[in-house]
Structures are given as structure tokens and as C-alpha cells.
UniProtKB/TrEMBL annotation:
<feature type="domain" description="Cadherin">
    <location>
        <begin position="106"/>
        <end position="214"/>
    </location>
</feature>
<keyword id="KW-0325">Glycoprotein</keyword>
<protein>
    <recommendedName>
        <fullName>Protocadherin gamma-C3</fullName>
    </recommendedName>
</protein>
<dbReference type="InterPro" id="IPR015919">
    <property type="entry name" value="Cadherin-like_sf"/>
</dbReference>
<dbReference type="GO" id="GO:0007156">
    <property type="term" value="P:homophilic cell adhesion via plasma membrane adhesion molecules"/>
</dbReference>
<dbReference type="InterPro" id="IPR020894">
    <property type="entry name" value="Cadherin_CS"/>
</dbReference>
<feature type="domain" description="Cadherin">
    <location>
        <begin position="215"/>
        <end position="324"/>
    </location>
</feature>
<feature type="transmembrane region" description="Helical">
    <location>
        <begin position="663"/>
        <end position="687"/>
    </location>
</feature>
<keyword id="KW-0732">Signal</keyword>
<keyword id="KW-0472">Membrane</keyword>
<dbReference type="GO" id="GO:0005886">
    <property type="term" value="C:plasma membrane"/>
</dbReference>
<feature type="domain" description="Cadherin">
    <location>
        <begin position="546"/>
        <end position="658"/>
    </location>
</feature>
<keyword id="KW-0106">Calcium</keyword>
<keyword id="KW-0130">Cell adhesion</keyword>
<dbReference type="GO" id="GO:0005509">
    <property type="term" value="F:calcium ion binding"/>
</dbReference>
<dbReference type="InterPro" id="IPR050174">
    <property type="entry name" value="Protocadherin/Cadherin-CA"/>
</dbReference>
<keyword id="KW-0812">Transmembrane</keyword>
Amino acid sequence: AQLRYSVPEDREPGFSVGDLAKDLGVEVRSLAARNLRLVSEGGQRHFQVDLAAGVLLLDSRLDREALCGQSPTCSLHLQLVMENPLQLHRVEVDVLDVNDNAPQFPKPEVVLEITEVANPGTRLPLEVAEDPDMGSNSISTYELSPSKHFALSIKVRGDGVKMPEIVLEKALDREKVPVHHLTLTALDGGNPVKSGTARVTIHVLDANDNPPVCDPPISKVLLEENVPVGTLVTKLNVTDLDEGPNGDVEYSFKTSNNAPGKFTKLFSLDARTGEIRTKAPLDYEESSAYEIAVRARDKGSPAMEGHCHLRVELIDINDNSPEIVLTSVSSPVQEDAAPGTVIALIGVKDSDSGDNGQVRLQIAKELPFKLVSSFKEHFSLVTSGPLDREKASGYNITVRAVDSGSPQRATQKTFYLRIADVNDNAPNFSSPFDTAHVQENSLPGTSVFSVSASDPDEGSNAKLSYSILDNGMQDAPISTYFRIDQDNGTIYTVRALDYEQDKVFQVPVEVKDAGSPALSSTAVVHVFVLDENDNAPNIVYPSVPKGSAFHQAIPALAEPGYLVTKIVAVDADSGHNAWLSYQLQESAEALPFQVERRSGEIRVAQALRESEDSHRLVVEVRDNGTPSLSASVVIVISPEENSVQDFSKSLDLPQPSSEDTNLTLYLIISLVSISLVSCVMFGLVAARC
């Protein structure tokens, strides 16, 4: 007969597999007699027969997986042999699978790689877990730990084996999560469920999907101008989340081929480190700021690049002196310019900024000028007081510009301002009154005197011309006596002068400049005519016609000392030329008469004899001039017996003319008049000054 039993593999030895006696239809008592024995086909003894109970018992614990492996069915074949009669029975024991094995992965950790640019839906196959159990106790399903990026997909092969796969559901970013750690769990269908796990490590392979990034993308650096060449400006902070060549960054300036940046001449860039340094002196005045564009490129394929923008702002230092610009200078300037007259327009500039560029202008305080601010950085130089060219014909004006930097810087510029003359000064004689002397009878054109005047003005305002004014003090116009050289002021005679007619002249001289309007002043030259011995003595008594003699009778007995007569003579000249002396001309016979040298009195010198006839005397009157001039008169003296001395007649001399009599008075009056006129002129000059 064919008997079939089943036994779970996890039963302990002694477990009753089946009731042989009952199934064979044999009495339990007869089993022993019939020598019932069990023969295994495989040579392994897993069962035994309990003859007393007539049952098939489990002799050892069964392991289905060891006995049958992965076979879907696991059966152990036994043979039962009974004697008396001999009978052979076949027993097939199905070893029933029990969920005594948990699923197990070939490796406890699975390492996978996926590129970060993989598209969602990409699948990563996994190794199948193994479970020796069969049927429902074998692997039923797989589970994956939760993940934002990955999910589990299970495929069933033709043989029914379930194949787990990891499916990418969301794009990866290696720079955010370079490695993903998951847990894969294999679950069987037993009860209770057994499971096995494996650690799944997914490495995200870098792709050049991240450009270099500047932090910050736009930055500003403050840098003093004139820093030494090679000064570190900044070091760019650039990050590339990629790795390897994809994250290896090289730096370069970003310029345009058509307009290369000026900054490339002033700054250097280390292509490896990203350090920016100065390579030339920086000048705030040339440019106060520089915009620098830097390209950061990685070495990926294709390469990606980022851009950094750096603004370098220069801090101004006071390295520039102020500059003075004379926009316009009105030179010369009239000396009568009113206060506030604009002399010059001055511009000032300082290339520095802030306080370093704030400029103050200064000029010397003692100058008659001041600075007035017109508008920013422009000034007017104006007069602040009266100008006088005669005191200062020009000014060296030094304009000093000082900035407000620290330390201060200054510059100065000097220019010469010429003062133009204005006819504001009248000519001035060296003396308002002068005295000159001229010899009478000098030839016309004789130089009498040279007046001198000065005018502190210049040019035409100081060009002087002299002229003689007519004062009306002479009978004839003064111009008929004198003329003056209008250029040098020399006074000349126009005609011969006669001392006896005019002894002194007041010559008013006017000097006038050539300015507009012309200014003038006057001076008086007193010209005294010096007497010349040009007049012979004039015998006024006795007055006899020329060629005649004067007859004078005297007593015959006149004694010595008797006054015969007196010769009276005058000389129109003056001084020594008018000093007269009287004398008798020598004669062949001795005369008993004598003449007084100074008085002209003729007296009897010795007693007369009775027999003497008349005497003829020639009396010569001579002046004291050089050469000396003389006049003579013939006097015939006749002694008479009855002649009586008529003293009254003798002494009754003709009176000189009123002109001769008052000559001294005229001289006195002239001197007094000159003195008075001089005083008046001095007073006028003093009052004018």
C-alpha cells in the first residue's frame, strides 16, 4: 500500500507522524510479531516506528531547507517491511515548510551610485533577498525606508521571484545630499512574518550642474589711494558645490574686447586663489571708484561660470595741492578806480574731495584789495581802498590757496598789477617864487632863468609845457619882454632891457600838463635888471647949450675957499655907475680954483691977483662905472671989482626933476611891493596845499 503523511519541519523528535497500524489495517499487537521495520531510501534515518503504539514517530528534527533545498515540494520516502506474510509498504512523508527562516540579503550593505543629473524614473536594480522557506513562507514583499527622492518597485520574474528596484522619483542634488542612506526590508509571507534588512547606500555622483557662486555677488571695498603696489584689495569668496574638477575654480577678469576695462591696468588677479591686488598706483582724482567684473569658471565639462562684481571705492587723501587759475586780470587798473572795482577773476580747484578739496584764498592784509567769493571755487579780486599810483605804481599780489586737509597743502601764485596813471596831480614848481637877474642891454634871446616843475603823474599826464602869463603890471605885455621855452622852462629875453626904464619884472609862469583835463600851477619869477653903465653923467647945472660956456663973475678980491659955483650932475644909472666924481681938466696954466671931488663945488684955491683976467675952467663929471663915462662943462670965471658974492644965487641950484628926486622912493616902493606880492603868493600856495 502507499501511505502518505505530512509533518511540519519544526516538530521535535518523538512527534507522531501517522498511525501505521490503523492505516495498514493491522492489529497493533501483531506488529511486533510480524517484525515491522522501517527502511529509509536515502540512508538517513529521520523516523522510527513505535511498535507498541503502531505509530510512525519523528526520530530527529527535520529541516526542510536542508533536505529539499528550494524544491517546491519536499517528500521523504520510507519503506515498511512486515513479515509473515512479507509485505512491502511505501510511505511518503511530506515535510511541510514552517516559517523558520527570515529573509536574508546576500550582503548586509548595498552600495549604489547614481548621477545627480539622473532623470526621475531612473531605476537601480537590487539584489534579491533569499529565504529558504517556501511557499507563503518565502519572500512575500520588499519595503524601503521613507525617502524624498527614492521609491521601491518590485518586479516578478517568470519564475515568480520578486525583484526589488529603487526608482528615482525626485531630482537629486549632490551638493545638498551627496549620500542617501536607505534600508531595504524583505518580508516573507509566514505567520508571524519574518524579515531581513540590508543597508542601501546610494552615492550621488557629481555632475557639473552648479556654477561657481560669489559670496557676496556684489561687494564693495574701501581702499586708500596711493597704497603701495601689491596691496591686497580683497580675496574673492567663491564656492562651487560640485566636487573634483567640477568644483575647481579659475578666476579671470571679465572685460569686453571692444572696451577693455581700465581696471586691468591697475589691478591683478590671481587665477588660482582669487586674490585681487594693486599693480599700479591708484589716484582718487583720476577715478574715485572702479567697477571690477571677475569671471569664476570651473573645470567641468561643459564648464560653468559665475560672476563676481567688486566695487573698489578709493578713500581720498590730501595728496593734491590747490591749483590757482587766473581767469582774467584787468591790468593796468586806473588809480581812481572806485572801491569794489573788479581787478581779477580767480578760479581755484583742488582735485581732492571733501575737506581735502575745500580751499580758502588769502592775500596780504596790507594790500588795498580783498577777495570776494563769486560762487563755488570762483573769487573776484576787488579794490578795498583808494589807489595812488604816485605812492605805488604797481603791486605784486600773491594769492595763497590753502585746503582744509590734514596736513594742509597750499600753493600760491603771484602776479603783477600795474596801476594806470590818472591826471590827479597838478604840476608843482620847485619854488612858487624865484629870483633872476639879467644884465640890461643883453641881446635878445639871452637866457634869464630856468624854472623847474615836476608832476608825479606819468606819461602824457606828466608831460609839461611852460607859458608866460600876462599880469598887466608893465606898460607893455610881458610877452614883449620875455619868452619861455615851453619844453624846458627856460626864460629868454625878447628884447634888450633898460634898467633905467624897468628895474624889475614879475614874470608869471604857468606850467600845464598834457592830461585830460589838464592841470596847471603858476609861479612868479622876479627878474631884476642889473644896471649897466650905459648912461653918461648929465650936468643939470649950470645948464648951457652944447658948445657954449657958463660965465660966472666973482669978486676980484675973493679969498681962498670962496664958493664960486657948484656943478650939479645926475646919472640915470645906479649904484657904482651913478657914483659921480668932479674934477678939473688939466690946463697949461695953473688955475687958482679947485673943485670938490664929491660935491662938485668950485672954490677959490688961492688969492687972486688984481691983474688977472678971466679964467676958463673945464669941469669934468665922471661916473664910477666900467668903463667910466663922463660929461664936462666950460665955466668962464671973471673977477670983477664990484662983484659981490650972491650966496643965495650961488646956492640957488636948479632942482632935479621929480623923477630923479624920487628915484630912491621908487626903489623903496618897488621893494615893498615885491615883498607884499611874495607874501600873498606864499599865502595862496599854503592855502591850496
